[in-house]
Amino acid sequence: MGLNKAEILKKCNNMCKNTLMETLNIEFINISEDTVTAKMPVNSRVHQPDGVLHGGASVALAESVGSAGAFIFLNEKDVAIRGIEISANHIKSIKEGFVYAKAKILHKGRTTQLWHIAIENENEELISMVKLTTLTLRR
């Protein structure tokens, strides 16, 4: 891609405009050689009726960060990334604060990618563990 870390994060955050990621206030905050991290606030906008983080919001966060990672690490312009399988285990509930999703690539194929995504609270306690498979579509 030829961009530095700050430019990549800015590009990821700009891609969120007018999408579900903007609705959920997902913000990409870090990138390393094999990980991408994003955060999401936990408040009434992402609660289920009993006042804790909705599992669907966690899954949306996980798919967002894993898909962005696939796009970044493939380093190709004319591709679209789609999540084709996702599995989440919700371990701990959270009512407020932030959750942080750190996606680590396990398999970086040209067509499919496998991601391990840990979602933690501000105290680094595991909230959800997600496995995501992405598909690369050539345009």
Automatic annotation (TrEMBL):
Q: Which Pfam families match?
A: 4HBT (PF03061)
Q: What's the name of the protein?
A: Thioesterase
Q: Does the keyword Protease apply?
A: no
Organism's domain of life? Bacteria
Listed A to Z, the keywords are: Hydrolase
Q: Name one GO cellular component term.
A: cytosol
Q: Which residues form the Thioesterase domain?
A: 51-126
The molecular function GO annotations come to: 1,4-dihydroxy-2-naphthoyl-CoA thioesterase activity
Entries under PANTHER family matching the protein: 1,4-DIHYDROXY-2-NAPHTHOYL-COA THIOESTERASE 1
Q: Kindly indicate whether the keyword Iron-sulfur belongs to this entry.
A: no
Biological source species:
Patiriisocius marinistellae
